Amino acid sequence: MAIAKKKSTTRKVEQSPISQSQMPLIDFGDAIRTILKAKPLKTPPNESTSQVPLESMSHWLNKIHCGDCTTLLNEMPAESVGLIVTSPPYNLRNSTGNGLKNGSGGKWANAALLEGYEGHNDDMPHDQYVEWQRTCLSAMMRVLRNDGAIFYNHKWRVQGGLLQDRHDIVSGFPVRQIIIWQRSGGINFNPGYFLPTYEVIYLICKPDFKLAPKANALGDIWNIPQESKNPHPAPFPVELAQRCIASTNAEIILDPFMGSGTTAIAAEACGRQWIGVEISQEYCTMAQERIDRERQLYNG
């Protein structure tokens, strides 16, 4: 049963140079509202935008699958999903500075990630972490349609006095654009650099990927508040996932790091089908309960 949308909510010509004072102010608010309020994508009952017959995906659709993401993705049919929206563990507990070690918490109140995630300590040696994430991205690319894309949310940070910009993870993958997720800042006790107030979303695209009509007007800087009142130690906002999904015409949305179920909730709000993968049984249960609550809220 899909979540019904709330009615009141939220998816080279040369010219003479002009001065900054003459430049029109562009308000992207209307574009954002147009995308998020767009009618959910509807597909005739016996048709699918997937290159794999929809009936053959019934085992996977609209369910959370508990297990290792690379193992489960390698069991899925190739080129079977249109979009992947995900935010993996950032490996924050492997840190050269105080960071979470001093309990400051940074972005996460009360250092929620001080002990890592349930089932994952978030403290892998850096080289192993990079290899793991590249393996995950390769598995994602295999299941992605030729007109599909990955919205891969990650965090840049300073390690050993130098910027760690995650190029070692995404190098060689077809990154088309970097979207800035501007969120509220956390806490920074390091006098060597400014308080970080954003994260990045790598838009990794197969060759035939195109945005939905008018979605390009959203721009590449998204100001979206952080998620609150979520028991997961590092959730990302439903609005962020919903904007990614509503910006495309993809029918099947995959999140291989489902966490608290955010991508599934956003997919149902956009009228799309979804597949969730999560290694933690505790988080699988948490996500399903949250999805069920949202369905009751939207459907009455």
Explain how this protein is built.
The chain is α/β, with parallel strands linked by helices and 300 residues long. It has one domain: Vaccinia Virus protein VP39 (Rossmann fold), CATH 3.40.50. The chain is 24% helix and 19% strand. The protein has 7 helices and 10 strands. The chain has helices spanning 29-36, 69-73, 126-143, 167-170, 238-246, 262-269, 281-299, and strands spanning 63-66, 81-86, 144-154, 157-159, 162-164, 175-182, 198-205, 221-223, 252-255, 273-278. The strands form 2 sheets. Strands 1-10-9-2-3-7-6-8 form an 8-stranded mixed sheet. Strand 4 and strand 5 (162-164) form a beta hairpin. Helix 5 (238-246) crosses helix 6 (262-269). The model is unreliable at 1-36, 38-49 and 105-111 (pLDDT under 50).
CATH topology: Rossmann fold
* Portion in beta strands: 15-25%
Q: How much is the radius of gyration in Å?
A: 20 Å
- Helicity level, as a percent range? 10-25%
Summed up, the helix count is 7
Largest sheet: 8 strands, mixed
Number of domains: 1
Order of helices and strands: HEHEHEEEHEEEHEHEH
Q: Give the spatial strand order of the biggest sheet.
A: 1-10-9-2-3-7-6-8
pLDDT averaged over residues = 80
Task: Name the poorly predicted regions.
Answer: 1-36, 38-49, 105-111
Q: Shape, please?
A: globular
